[in-house]
Structure formats: C-alpha cells, structure tokens
What does this fold into?
Amino acid sequence: MQEIQSLMGGFAVAMTWFNLALMFAGVTLGVLIGVLPGLGGANGVAILLPLTFSMSQQPGGTTSAIILLSCIYWGALFGGAITSILFNIPGEPWSVATTFDGYPLAQKGRAGAALTAAFTSSFVGALVAVILITFISPVIARFALKFGPPEFFSVYLLTFSAFVGMAKGTPFKTIVAMMTGFALAAVGIDTVTGQLRLTFEFTELLKGFDFLIAVIGLFGIGEILLTIEEGLEFKGAQAKLNMKVVLETWKELPRYWKTSIRSSAVGCLMGIVPGGATPASFMAYGLAKKMSKDGEHFGTGKVEGVVAPETAAHAAGTSALLPMLTLGVPGSPTAAVLLGGLLIWGLQPGPLLFVEKADFVWGLIASMYLGNIVGLIVVLTCVPLFASILRIPFAIIAPVILVICAIGAYTVHNSMFDVWLMVGFGILGYVFKKLDYPMAPLVLALVLGDRTEDSFRQAMLGSQGSLSAFFANPLVSTITGLALLLLFWPLISKLITLARGRNGA
Amino acid sequence: MTTGEKNSMEDKRPVTSMRVAELVMAGLFMIFGAIVMWDSRRLGSDWAEDGPQAGYFPFYISLLIVASSAAIIFRALNLGEKGRAAFVEWGQLRMILTVMIPTVIYVALIANPWFSLGIYVASAIFIAFFMWHLGKYAWARILPVCIGVMVFFFFLFEVWFKVPLPKGPLEAAFGFG
It folds into this structure.
C-alpha cells in the first residue's frame, strides 16, 4: 500500500490555500474555455501555458503550475456538457453524444436534471480514472524503467498506429496529417548531426515549429472560421439549477449504477489509447442504449443517455494522462500540451519522473481528486453564469477570442513570426475540418516527432540498421505486434467483412 | 426578383466542389512531400558509417506523405455524387473573408517595419471594427467594450503576470517601453 502513502504525501503538497485557490481559478477558467467557441481544452491550456513561466520558477511552483493547467483541463471537460445540453452545440468532439439526450431533456424543461446528471457522472467517471491512475501508473512506470530505445519506439509506433486503426474516415488522411506533423517536427537543427533540415535558408525556420502555435491556430482560429461560416447564433434553453433539482436528480442517479460502471470501464480502457475519448463516449452511449430497459426511448431525453457518454468521456479524458505521466506519451492533444508544459518547466516526462520528482507526480495525482471535487462544486453553482456568457453576441466574443489567440501565440516565444504562423495554421485547420483530415495526429506527431526519431535512430544504431531490433525480445515484439495489428486494422476489418460476405452469399 | 433574393441565391452557389478541394489539398500535400523528400536526399538519407544520416527518418516520412496523398487523389477521382457537393458556398466564403482579412490586417498592425501600433492598440481597433461592421453597434457601446477589454489585458499581462507583449507609441507615451 505504498501508493496510499505516496498519495497522502501528494495531498499534503496539493492542499495549500494557494493551490486550492488555483484549482478554483483553473476550473472556472476551464469551464469558460470549454463553453466559448474557438477555445477548447487544448488551445486554452496552450494559450495559458506561457503565464506559468514565472510561477514555475518558485520553489514548489511546478506543482502549482500543473495544478492550474490540469484544473483548466477538468473545467473544459465539464464545460463541454453545458453547451451540448443547453445549446445543442458540442463544445468538444466527445460531447457530441451528450447532445443526443441532453438537448431533448433541456427542451422538455428538464435542463437542470440533464446538467446535474452530466456533471455528476463526469465526476464519477473522472474519479474512477483517477483511482486507476493512482494504483496502475506506479506499476507501469516501474515497468517502463527497463525500456530502451526499441521499446520506446514501439510504444510511439503503437500510439500513432492507434490513430490509423481507430480513424473514422479513410486511414490515408490520418497518415498524411500525422506525417506532416513529423515532417514539421524535423524542421530546424538536427540534434544528432547538427545539420539544418528543411530550413531552406530561412532564419525564422531555424528553431523549428512549436506545436503550441499549431494547437492555437488549428483548434482556435480554425474553429472560429467554421463557426462564422455557419453564421451561428446561439439559441439556448434557459438554465436554472437550484438545489432541489440537484438533489432530486441525485436521488434518481443511483438507479443507473450499471451504466456508470460500464461506461467508466469503457472510458478508462479507451482513454489510455490515443484519441480515445470521443469513441469512448459514443461506445458507452451505444452500449447503454442496447443494454438499458428503455433503450428504445433513448434520444428522446433520457437521463441515462446523458450519464453514459459523460461518464465515459471524463473517464477517458482523465486516463489519457496515464500514458503521459508514465511513458511521456500523451493520449490527446490536451495531454500533449500538458506534456509540453512539463518540458518547458524543465521536467522530463517519462518513467523517471516517478523516481526523481515524486513530490510533483503525487501532488498532481492528489490534485486530480481535489480538482474534480472543486470542479463539481463550481459547475453546479455557476451554470447560469456560464450560460449567460454564451449569450454575449458573436460580434464581440469572436474578435476577443482572436485577440486572445494572437496574444497566446506571441507569448510562446515572444515572436511575431509565430503569430503569422498561427494564422496559417488556422486556415489549415479550417480546410482540415472541412475535408475530414484529423488534427490530433498532426499535433501529437509534432510533439513526439523528435523523440520518436531519436528512439528510432538509437534503436537502429543498436541493431546496425536492422529492423529486427523491434522484435528482439518478447516485450518489444508484443508492443510492435500490437502496433502493427492496429495499423493494419482498417485493412484487416475490410478483409473480414469481405470474407463474411462471401460466406453469407 | 428582388435584390435580396438574388443575393441569397448567389450566396448558395458553390465556390468549388468537394472533389476539386480534395484534389487541390492532396496535390499540395504531394508537393510538400516532394520538397521534404528532396531535402532529405540532399542531406543524405542512407546509412553512414556512424549510423543513419540526417535525412534518413524524414525520407521515409516523405515517402509516406507522397504515397498517401496519391491514394487520396485516387479516392477523390472516384468520389461520385459526394464529390459534387459544395466545399464552400459564396455566402460562406464572404463571411470567412470578413473575418480573415481584418485578422491579417490586425496582425500586420501589431508589428511591421513601418509603423507598429503594438498589440493593445491594434487589438482595440480590431474589436471595434468587428463590433461596428458585423454587430452594427453604436460607438457609445463599442468604445467602452474595446477599451475596457484592452485595459484589463494590459494589467493582466504587463502588471500581474509580467509577460511583456509588443507595445507601440501609445504605451510609450504612458511610460511603458
């Protein structure tokens, strides 16, 4: 039970008045970000990251900084539900499934019940995932301490193969987006040979592309352009949330314990795989619809139909931090931005973090418990406030968000070139969305590009250029095998349906 | 037919089809892949005595980009009915340009070789333009909003978080360099 002891130590680190105040600030900001169009978890955290530079240099400051940023993330996760239920606009892709039953409930005048159900089940999902992180991550980190370059490369390969295997559309677009990320990551000085790559004598390109700029442009500007194209006006249901509705809904919720358990399990499993939150929410909704007694009434405004996707999405969103903490491999763009934060503050993410910076890791894990409790309190009490923000006319909110994005892009390196890059990435993000190119693989490849390449090169050096390095021992062969299975999954599943079709005919 | 109806019919006309947009994007990716490939070959993408050369990894990346964009082009040519759908309509494009053009001017106003306004003044002008042009607000509403927002941002960044942003003549007049 060493984990419990470490966790208690973590609580001691996280439970200062300063950190608690940061949690409230972070969650409130996060919900705001989750509610506003054009700002989401990933680019919201990216924009606020530079503000933590000075904070992280004080003693114990890195823990405070990660608490602030991770609480923004929890807030953004909670905030997605508000727009889905009240306005039928999913703030984040994983809240799409929440609109299926959440919006009909709001139209029936039961917005309060839908919101309470969404927030409470989000909290439950996150709690299950945090417990999982508490007990599993030290084990994985200990295990991963033995990893060499081939093992790390196979883990990266698994991460990227998962994107290809789980892609909704054509796998080729996922591959192109991902490889573009890798190519952009290669721009600049090669760390091994010191040669200039892909800079074409432009001095601005020497330092390469920062993924924070890409995140702000792709997710921020791109989203604003899409919103403006639809000429969007917000027409939402009224949000009234009083204690009576909350308590009544809480009385109803224990009835859905089976759905909760199922959705948490789906969420935790899918969350560890990159890009898992969105499929997890759909899967949990589908499962609940199939297994529930009144499954045929799903979509007409059932509280259970809100519980399922929200539990799963939050469980997935939280457990996405598990591979980030233990292996240094982020499972989502937001986790990638948090990982970028660690690097900027001078911490090396990966298994060694548990050994060298135990204070930091356990402080963060403890703050996950506290942050979600704080989050639940904030969202339950402040819904009308957040909903009223969506009623600010678009002609005011859009330029303010664009200004915030520009400031965020500038502060990453104090460079105007980055602001121009952000505009470019914004246009790219708009085209990507319209043509169904996924953005998350590009961002993750941009983040992990250098480390993937380093581990690949080192592994190849070890084996004198032979690919057999990735099948040298049972561990690395298993991971590589899994990665290849996922990579070719679109092809395999097509073959299976073909074979079945032939049998049937 | 009134001018309003005529306008809305023109608004619905597609600028380009999905197929053309898919082909152009995949074509751009292919060019990008070719550039990466060319540079990797220049750096050397083989196995040197001391290990892989600098272009070794990017070369395979570029190979995948070119191959996948070829597959996307092939798919786009066989899209059928779906390929004829509108990628973007004229009305939508106009809305996007009413955001994009001011944004580009805004970024140029922040800092340029001739006359830089700094981020605060440029942002205030940008927000004011949006509210006036898109929101049709009266100046009595516009000025308090854009000045208030920028004063808040100024204190947030320059004073509380000590993150310096680009400044121009107005800030200099107040003694902030």
The mean pLDDT of chain A is 85. The longest helix of chain A spans residues 111-144.
